Amino acid sequence: MRNIIAIFQKQVKETFKNKTILIQFIMFPLMAIIMENTVKIEGMPDNFFVNLFSSMYIGMAPLTSMASIISEEKEKNTLRVLMMSQVKPMQYLIGTGSYIWGICMIGACVLGLTGTYEGKELVAFLGIMAVGILASLLMGAAIGTWSHNQMSATSLTMPVMFVFSFLPMLSMFNEAIDKIARLVYSDQIYTLLNNMGYQSGYQLEIALENVAVVGVNMAVAILFFAYAYKKSGLA
Amino acid sequence: MNQNNINQNNIKSIVALSNVVKQFGEKEVLKGISLTVKPGEIVGLLGPSGAGKTTMIKIVTGQLEATSGKVMVDSSSTEMGMMMDSLGLYERLSCYDNLKLFAKIYNIPVERIDEVLKKVGLSEAKKRPVDKLSKGMRGRLALARAVMHEPKILFLDEPTSGLDPTTTNQIHELILEEKAKGTTIFLTTHNMAEAEKLCQHVALLHEGKIIEYGEPKEIGRKYNHQKKLQIRLYDGRCMELLNNKEAAEKVQDYLAQELLETIHSTEPNLETVFMELTGSMLE
User: Fold this and answer.
1) For chain A, how many structural domains are there in total?
2) Alpha helices (runs of H) in chain A, residue ranges in sequence order
């Protein structure tokens, strides 16, 4: 536990000095605040921008930051030094992952409060976001572990991030894309958020499809991570 | 591990390798390495890139498993300190915060951070981010991190590579201070003068084998085939004399005439020994 806390605290200090990571956590909540308060179109669903940017936030921030942090630590040899100092790979992943999850949940709170969510609805919104962020973290950990340096991590993260971030939005305009997007966890999260938003009275509807797709996506990420870890280890 | 190998001259060894082989696929990187290290000594691992130095250290530190052979290390990984060639420092964090992370991991009081920063001469730079430090300062910070928890075994991989002579000397002083405290030190280096200055024993590695092992001066004497004396006189003359009775008489004459300025034996240095044994340079 001591090592996990040490890694967590280190990550807090590091992130506040790493603008490229920091901007990922701030960008979408900030855009949601601006768009939700400035753009009003007749017939636009409730919380349209909040839900849209929330699914994009899930697809981008945890994934890119987790992959970037792990690959940077590998490239600069800091991860090897940690492993040599009795920090176990799982302790490192939990320390770093819990920090990113925590800071993303703060962003999720900002997004939730920017929308019209309150009470049980807000709790449900945060619950959905928590699951989405966790799925994205697993993807990021797998990419970071697979990559030997930041450059290879970036070249792998970019297409994956575009798929997870932008498919929910693109699926609105094209039926064929919508069919593919339904296989992706961020689209299912977007669907869950929209189902909440459309309810006049609060009632969270979770379909088997939502759970199955998110579950399978997480399982794929875990398998990819396990394969990457077996291939080259964390450090 | 065979107890006879571990206990040499009744002093328990802290590290003992016996016939250690390491293969990466088809490639055999270590070909039957045997080495015994006693507590409190500095052992130099010398060899060109690809000789197997880093693989050997990784096996001793538990980062790699040997394909065959026996490895005995009388120390847990928390009792080891390591300063690697790529220093592995968090560049955005300050010197203090870099050490604070490891103070927490090693569960040692944070007061120790100021002590080690003072020891390596970085007290004034404690709040400075690592990316604003010179190469020498980074090296000293990495050394501070390696010794902060007072390890039993210290692994130093090219600790003075690319540093100026002043910083190199400062690091040498720190290494000798650690040795004086009883720390066993593994030093990999290309710098022969450094090995001769710091190490009690050196192992010359070539293509995965230890081709020579011993005290640096003893190795020099062993390969001193020429057995010559180099003489320089005050009148500017330089000469090489065979180390025999005739030379002794000549030297006596020069001394009597107060002509002798310098006199040196010509035993080879480690670089020359390595060249003789392998036909290639160390670097």
Assistant:
1) 1
2) 2-16, 19-38, 48-75, 78-84, 89-114, 120-146, 150-170, 175-181, 185-198, 208-232
